[in-house]
């Protein structure tokens, strides 16, 4: 009589497996996965030689990328080096704009921007160029540069205008509208700017220059001389000699605001005379002046 052994019934839920049974199940699954990875889709077992073409192709692509990167870096470096040693990297022409009282040569000398200078030392260094120009030519207030075309530079300057000439006895020194008195002396004052005389106090002179700078250009150009002439009633009194033949008395602290009335007052005057702007604003002919 045959004895049949009943096959153990598999447990329905993985949670009912013992730790040993779970270990055996996981090992069997891992073995099947490893066997499957060594076979192709057709069931044929894969050999190491079958994988070599793919590895070689990957290595060729990686090598090609590296060669392209190295060649690109080399070409860029060669191009930059070639540019810096070529004439294109140097200033070919320089044009100057914004100058009025300074000549083109003075601006180029002060900024040191001339043909042949490296472009990279000029473009983008306006602040450094301005400081260098100010030291060489105090009348330059600001410098801006712009690249035009491949290697031409346009230089734009902002001048500090001349406020006049300070009389120092036998010589004259130029004064700028920012209050700076230049060291250079002249035997004769330049035209178009007034002479400042009898100013002993630096504070009075600085205030007078600041007031003068606020005037319209037409009124500025009509002033020939500004003489400090204080009296007991007005310690800030100044006496002006105008190019149109009139004379003006004014106060330093209110000079700019009061001189705004000058053109209107002159238009109503029938003869040359004196215009007093110290208190109010009135005029009288020379024959009746009483200083």
From TrEMBL:
It is found in: Cell membrane; Membrane. Belongs to the FtsQ/DivIB family. DivIB subfamily. The chain crosses the membrane at residues 63-85. This is Cell division protein DivIB. GO terms for biological process: FtsZ-dependent cytokinesis. The keyword Transmembrane applies. InterPro entries: Cell_div_FtsQ/DivIB_C (IPR005548), DivIB (IPR026580), FtsQ_DivIB (IPR050487), POTRA (IPR034746). Keywords: Cell cycle, Cell division, Cell membrane, Membrane, Transmembrane, Transmembrane helix. It is a single-pass type II membrane protein. The lineage of its organism: Bacteria, Bacillati, Bacillota, Bacilli, Lactobacillales. GO terms for cellular component: cell division site; plasma membrane. Cell division protein that may be involved in stabilizing or promoting the assembly of the division complex. Residues 89-160 form the POTRA domain.
